[in-house]
Structure formats: C-alpha cells, structure tokens
C-alpha cells in the first residue's frame, strides 16, 4: 500500500511538471536555429555587461527637513584679495543682533593683485567649472560624488618688498551665531561701539580707495573636498574709487553622505549687486565689499545611493529570459512563413501556365455560343 501511495504521489508530481523534457529523438538542430542562438547569446552578453555598469552607477537622493539646530556656531571660510593695502582696510562680521564678531581668525597678507601664471591657470579652470555648473546642474552630483576640486596652488611669497605690494589677501575663518549677519570689508580698521561698531576711515584719502577684489574661496561650515561654492573664482574690477559691491547670500544647511565623505556642511545661493557711491546723485552708502547672509530654516540631506543587488539580479534574469523568448518566437514565426510560401509554390497554385490557360478558355466561351 505504501508503495502504491508513493507511486501515485510521484505520478501526480510528474503530471504537475511545467518543464517537461523533450526526447532527444524529437529534437532537430538546424543552421538557422544555430545562427539565431548565436545572435541571441551575443545580445545577452552585451546587455548583461551594460547592466553591470548600470548596477555600479550611483545617484544622489535629495531629502528636505526642518533644521532644528540653532545653538551651534557657523563657520565662515574666507580667502579674498582686495586691491588695497592691508593697513587701509578691515574685515569683520555684524550679526542681526548687532553683535560684532571678533576677526581674530583672519590674517592680512600683503600680496600683488595680479596672479602668477600657475595660479592664473587654476583661476581660469575654476571659472570654467563655474560656467558649466550654471548650465549643467547635474554636474553638482558629480562634484558631490568625486572630489574633483583639488587644493589651489599655494601662493608663493613675493620677493618684492612689503612697500611695493599694493594688495591685501584676507584669509582664514570666523565662527558666528546661526543668525543673519553681514560680513564686510571696508576702509579702516573696525573698533567696538555701543551701538554696533565703526571703522576708522577718516585717515584714508578717498583717492586711494580701490575695492577691486577676487574671491578665491568663500564657504560656510566645515570645508569639504568636492564642493565648489558659487562665489569661488569671482573677480570684480571697480570702475570708480567709491564703489560698493553687495552679495546677498542664502545659506542652506546640508548633510552630505556619500561613499567618500560623510559630514555636515552648508551650501548657498547668491545674488550680486554693485553701484558707484555718489551722494550728489542720490546714491548713498559706504564704499566696500558687503556680504549679507541669511540662513534657511530647511536642511537638505544628500545621500549617495545605488541599485540593490536583488534588483540587479531580477533585471538580469529579465534580460536573459526576454531575449531568449523573443528570439525563439521570431525564429518560429519566420520559419512558419518560409514554410508556407515554399509549400504554396510547390503545390503549383501560382504556376504561370495554368493562369494563361484559364484566361484563354474564358475568352473562347462567348464565341462558341454566338456560333450556335
């Protein structure tokens, strides 16, 4: 009884077989089938190879959330060259609460405004990257994923005497509160004031004002490779001695998580404006470089992702199975059409002699009826 039960179970399982084996005696290999199989295998290999590159490709996922961190300090990284002597200008930050931030982290270095050839090449390369970033926004993902921004070449100490150096390089970093503020460079060193601060500009002649400047780097947060800020490489030439340059900056906190870098930094967008100070014409203000920044309440989370392994295997199986089934159907359809056409010609349905004989008999019939 047990053997009969096992046999019935095996018979039932065999009847449920969805992949029955065809006996070798019923299988016939043809040259056309071998050709189609070779083409199908080639397509499978090529598409599987390309699919592997798609699997290795990564993309950036952007998410947005409210920034709840208001107690930490914001770091400002500065590297600006102004076409005035260091003793004539001063840089500091005044935030929205009229709190003056000490500029102890900034260094004033006398330099020449014109760049040497090696640094000029780096500057032109940076300008070209900025131009492409304004047109091709997808390049920012490439910058996030790969640290293509190398460190700029170190500025060599000029062999000229300090008296012959007519420009000043202000570089370093500051820590400020996470509120809106104003980082500015203007005439005279800054001094504390009960209502804010003031600059000692009375001892500097107006004819010596020249706020032509070059922003080699300006960023917020911890400096990271792979991020090029919008103002990096900006160069402005003042057309008049009394000239005001304004940059309105919106800072966006950013959490960057890639396979190379995992850190918290800040991105920003900027709007530029400049004008000549002429009190007689109604254009009031103070000559200098003013960067007014505000911090967004939203945080951007940028995460590098790639295709999961299970999805890659499913797509790979779909490619192989789809090509195998499609080529089999096409081969069967073409073979069927060839067999049909060949068989009809062999049966003689379209023989030219039969067609001419049928037409001649039809033309003779009316003449015989007329004779009768």
Automatic annotation (TrEMBL):
Give membrane topology per the record.
Multi-pass membrane protein
Chief subcellular site? endoplasmic reticulum
Q: Provide a GO biological process annotation.
A: endoplasmic reticulum to Golgi vesicle-mediated transport
Give every Endoplasmic reticulum vesicle transporter N-terminal domain span.
13-98
**Which ranges does the record mark as transmembrane?**
36-55, 312-338
Where does the record place it?
Answer: Endoplasmic reticulum membrane; Endoplasmic reticulum-Golgi intermediate compartment membrane; Golgi apparatus membrane
- UniProt KW Transferase keyword: no
Question: What keywords tag this UniProt record?
Answer: Endoplasmic reticulum, ER-Golgi transport, Golgi apparatus, Membrane, Transmembrane, Transmembrane helix, Transport
- Which family, according to the similarity comment? Belongs to the ERGIC family.
Protein name in the entry: Endoplasmic reticulum-Golgi intermediate compartment protein
- Native species: Oreochromis aureus (Israeli tilapia)
